[in-house]
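Hey all, quick one. A colleague (J.T.) asked me to put the 2-oxoglutaric acid job into the tracker so the inputs and the structure tokens live in one place instead of scattered across chat threads. No bug as far as I know, just bookkeeping. Sequence used:
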Amino acid sequence: MSAAAGPGGGAPRPGGWGGTDGSGGAPDGEGLFPLPVSGPVPRVPVEIAPGAVHVPGWLTVERQRRLVDACRGWARGPVPMRHTVLPGGGVMSVRTVCLGWHWQPYRYSRTADDVNGARPAPLPGWLAGWGRAAVLAAHGPDGGGSAYAPDTALINFYDDGARMGMHQDREERSAAPVVSLSVGDRCVFRFGNTRTRGRPYLDVELASGDLFVFGGPSRAAYHGVPKVYPGTAVPGTGIRSGRLNLTLRETGLSG
Ligand SMILES: O=C(O)CCC(=O)C(=O)O
Ligand SMILES: [Fe+2]
């Protein structure tokens, strides 16, 4: 993680509701001089802004592989993964495929009218279940995880040169959080404020298996991916190069 001035103005801090390995949940004053850590760096949730939580290494390699295998299938159809064309004629550098609802800038529809007119594949129940578990892991037992009912997923694939500019996820008519899962190459995930594309923002490094959830006061924060680090994928996930990101959302739409 780099940079310092987060939208909340403070330094990143471990999630206050308690880490599961005993290293991140100490009440204030008790964790100032923790025992030296040997072995892997503890993987505890870090709340980088109110409602925005990074959980490193949340997905096992086996689950990453399951996700990659599923995404490979969805990338073939019924709506093939493609570079989205923006209304002004620009072309996004990531390639995208959606589940449940089709997102095209800047709306959701049941059919992929800017691709081949087909209905996207449904969002499977197991993936919605991962979404509920993700909100629980990030926001704790009182954070609404059991009520989380995502009905769409956006799947983005970044090759070495792909980026995503600062934007808000604002086509949804629900205040429910966005759940982001990453597999493959590491990246810089820039997480900003709700008012402007610019500073203050915090640069978070997202690695293979990482979870990032943003909801509550951070739901409308600008965010983007200014850099992917080629050659940093971990073995065993099924991705040798490039980065896969899947975001789950509640659209709040019906029909
Ligand atoms: O790739 C990422 O980590 C973020 C993707 C994103 O912001 C989006 O799909 O709206
Ligand atoms: Fe986004």
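Adding what we noticed when we looked at it: The pocket of fe (ii) ion (ligand 2) is lined by residues 167, 169, 223 (CB under 6 Å). The chain has two helices and 15 strands.
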